[in-house]
Amino acid sequence: MALYPVRVASDRPNRTPRNPTSSAFTLEFRHEFEAERGRWLKRRFVWFGCVMAAWQTIAILYYSGRFALRYSDAGLSLPLPEVLGFAGLVATAAILVILYAGPVVYVHRTTLSRSREDVLRLVFWIFVTQGIVTAIGKLLFPLALGGAMNAGPLGFLPQWGFTLFMTHVVAASFMPWTPREAIRPLAPLLVIFVVAALFVGAGGWLPRIFAIVLSPAIALPGLMICQWRHGRFRDRFQMRMLRGRYKEMRQELTDARRIHESLFPEPISEGAVRFEFEYEPMRQIGGDFLFTHRFPGIGMEELGEEPLSIVIIDVTGHGIPAALTVNRLHGELERIFAEEPDISPGDVLTALNRYVHLTLATHSVYATALCLRVAPELNILEWANGGHPPAFVRTIDGRLDQLDSTAFVLGACHGDDFDPHQRSMQFTRGDSLIAYTDGATEARSETGSMMRVEGMRSLVATSYPSKAPARGGWAGEIARRVWDFRFGPATDDMLIVEVYRPVQA
Length: 505
Description:
Elements lengths: L19 H55 L5 H30 L6 H25 L16 H18 L4 H21 L5 H10 L5 H43 L11 E7 L7 E7 L13 E8 L3 H21 L5 H15 L7 E9 L4 E7 L4 E4 L5 E4 L19 E4 L5 E5 L1 H4 L10 H11 L11 H12 L8 E7 L5
Antiparallel strand pairs: 1-10, 2-3, 3-4, 4-5, 5-8, 6-7, 6-9, 9-10
Helix pairs in contact: 1-2, 1-3, 2-3, 3-4, 3-5, 4-5, 4-7, 5-6, 5-7, 8-9
């Protein structure tokens, strides 16, 4: 919104208001994100537990079948350590089946009462317990496969390390961990691995140091998988949230526009004073507004026509903030005219300036306004203009009069320093008044030139209202001429109003 004819800074300090909307949206987004991650974790944990339990069940069947083959081949001469080794492997797999199946049933039955932190804590202890149990199995029961205890330069460590590696990769492929969450259950097992390499593993110190140095590599593939999956989930969640919020916002804006435009008056097509308008917000809703009021009961109704007051307002800014400001000004105008139905345009402008200065200027929100009152029985047009673009009156004989600004922009100065400088002029039958907001004067052509006030004056001087009722009169014709001039989308809200006296009522 451009300010006419001058730009005046407020005498109030420029304060930056807090913006709770952004933080509230961020907080809502984070809560929904964490809730979605929690639901995803619970689902994936159930799948992970079932797969691991099924794998260990297959291991039990495998070890039992191999023991049966060895027993049938060796008969009663099967060595006791080998029998104990097979029994230990089967017992280890059975413990792991219970270790995975039990928590799966527990989480599945208590999904609604388990938080994400509860599930992560459960996963941590399952993973650590599984790692310790498999370490014991690798350490104490190698004889089941016909080998020797602590065979190789590092004994059981290579096999255990490979088991940790595979288990962590599988877990990372299932569980929606962050990298930080993925390293937690593996960290104590890596510490145990280092201690075992120092004090339990076979072989010399060089292989042990080599194993210790390479032990962090066990976690790298799983961490990379978690980083990729978490980033992908975050991106997909953000897109889904944004799509959902966009749909909600479109619906809310549609409802807001319907409510906002319901504040506009219905055009008057009968009587001695009539008006119509064309409104084009830059976005769904905007900061241009039109208010009308008839005030019978002041001793003029016996003349057949009561006066008509019209207020045209243009609020700084665009979109929702400007529309909210318009909503407040609409309520203030209703209060003003309810308390004093026959109030003059100058007093309306003064009251609006006081309201904007006390309530809106502290937020760097200002407005321009053109207040009019047409008294048909006196053929008088009264007006007061607070920084609004000049309106034009085209008389029945073709003369063009300009209604310039008479006061400062609303909110720019204190009420005691504000003088509306109300003016009046003849407004007889056949005369038309064309007012507009700066969305029209700031329209740019393909070459970049602006319409400006001079261009609007030329349009009013050279245009003729449409005779087709469906297309409107001056307001519709001026709007179409502006649209023809403008290149590209609108850069501001545009409101064009025509107030006219018909030759014959």
